Amino acid sequence: MISTHVLDTAKGRPAAQVRVELYRGEELLASALTDADGRVRELADVGAGTYRLVFHPPSPFFRRVELELELADGDVHVPLLVSPFACATYRGS
């Protein structure tokens, strides 16, 4: 299972209603909006492989943040921290 959350670090709070998409190659596997806590608790249940996680954050500079992930079997949580002029991600637990 892939889950994520988006934090607006400029405002110091979760970013609600951010579109998050998951692709394998060019195929869109899942799409969701973050909830009031900035979370997508269950984006997709996928197996091992290479995927692209695409965020459309509330930033005047970063219109799209795309990550290519190599996943093993098991759950993975991928947070995005974003502000008007910076973004960061990490593998969560």
Describe the structure.
The chain has 93 residues and is mainly beta. The chain has one domain (2-89): Immunoglobulin-like (Sandwich), CATH 2.60.40. The protein is 0% helix and 59% strand. It has no helices and nine strands. The strands form two sheets. Strands 1, 2, 5, 8 and 9 form a five-stranded mixed beta sheet that branches. A four-stranded antiparallel beta sheet has the order 4-3-6-7, with no helix packed on it. The chain starts with a strand and ends with a strand. The relative contact order is 0.29.
The pLDDT mean sits at 94
Q: Tell me what portion of residues adopts beta-strand conformation.
A: over 45%
Overall domain count? 1
Task: Count every helix, treating DSSP H or I runs of 4 or more residues as helices.
Answer: 0
CATH class: Mainly Beta
Order of helices and strands: EEEEEEEEE
Q: Tell me the name of the CATH homologous superfamily.
A: Transthyretin/hydroxyisourate hydrolase domain
Low-confidence stretches: none
CATH topology: Immunoglobulin-like
Q: What general outline do the C-alpha atoms trace?
A: globular
> Given the helix and strand composition, which structural class is it?
mainly beta
Give the proportion of residues in helices: under 10%
Q: Over all CA atoms, what is the radius of gyration?
A: 12 Å
The major sheet is characterized as:
5 strands, mixed
Termini gap: 12 Å
Going by CATH, the architecture would be Sandwich
Secondary-structure map:
Blueprint lengths: L1 E7 L4 E2 L4 E6 L2 E7 L5 E6 L4 E8 L8 E7 L4 E8 L2 E4 L4
Parallel strand pairs: 1-8
Antiparallel strand pairs: 1-2, 1-5, 3-4, 3-6, 6-7, 8-9
